[in-house]
Design a protein that fits this description.
The complex is a heterodimer of chains A (116) and B (116). By secondary structure, chain A is mainly beta. Helices cover 0% and strands 53% of the residues of chain A. In chain A, strands 2, 4, 5, 6, 9, 10 and 11 form a seven-stranded mixed beta sheet that branches. Chain A has a four-stranded antiparallel beta sheet with strand order 1-3-8-7, with no helix packed on it. The chains are: A mainly beta (116), B mainly beta (116).
């Protein structure tokens, strides 16, 4: 089945620095990938939709200059948290869909970001 | 706007019990209904996907049903085991809109604890 790989699984960074999270579709091409954020004991909140070769579409309230998304190839999307602050600490998860069939959505294993 | 509700929010059962998790959605114009499992600090694992034309899907001890007309889906877990302890999320995927892609609407999840 479709596999989405997400790295790193955990990252700790200092306030003011930037962190890049990678999301790769391993055995299929994904023209569209999705980035979610999850707070403790909460469900997933869609942040943005990443489109290969074009600009990402951000959900209302999500700062596009803080959360930079690049989808440069059909198998890789990256989320960069710029000038990170402690309030950016969260669990970030990416997702993609294998368009070759109706298999639903596949999710990465998530990235736990801690900003100190 | 689609809204997905999951009941109960938490459930604790002894090992061996059969149990039912409920999911309801307000907009019946869905493409798929997908059930996921999330272990603490991990990403989402897809359990079952029910297409809008289907009534149910089965995988091992899991059975998911879909009733679009009433806006309900249930996840049945037979002979529960401690390893089934996790948060279970249901998500509704709408029919494609004019933009060509769609995003999932998640419920808040049911946290299941199966005690030995």
């Amino acid at each position: 089945g479709a596999v989405v790989s997400q790295h790193p699984s955990r990252v700790i960074c200092k306030s003011g620095t930037s962190v890049k999270i990678e999301c790769r579709s391993l055995d299929f091409q994904a023209t569209t990938m999705f980035w979610y954020r999850q707070f403790p004991k909460q469900s997933l909140m869609l942040m943005a939709t990443s489109n290969e070769g074009s600009k990402a579409t951000y959900e209302q309230g999500v700062e596009k200059d803080k959360f930079l998304i690049n989808h440069a190839s059909l198998t890789l999307s990256t989320l960069t948290v710029t000038s990170a602050h402690p309030e950016d600490s969260s669990f970030y998860i990416c997702s993609a869909r294998d368009a070759r069939g109706n298999y639903g959505y596949t999710f990465g294993s998530g990235t736990r970001l801690t900003v100190v | 706007k689609q809204e997905v509700t999951q009941i109960p929010a938490a459930l604790s059962v002894p090992e061996g019990e059969n149990l039912v998790l409920n999911c309801s959605f307000t907009d019946s114009a869905i493409y798929n209904l997908q059930w996921f499992r999330q272990d603490p600090g991990k990403g989402l694992t897809s359990l079952l996907l029910i297409q809008s034309s289907q009534r149910e899907q089965t995988s091992g001890r899991l059975n998911a049903s879909l009733d679009k007309s009433s806006g309900r889906s249930t996840l049945y877990i037979a002979a529960s085991q401690p390893g089934d302890s996790a948060t279970y999320l249901c998500a509704a995927e709408p029919l494609y809109d004019f933009s060509g892609y769609s995003t999932l609407t998640f419920g808040k999840g049911t946290m299941l604890l199966v005690s030995p």
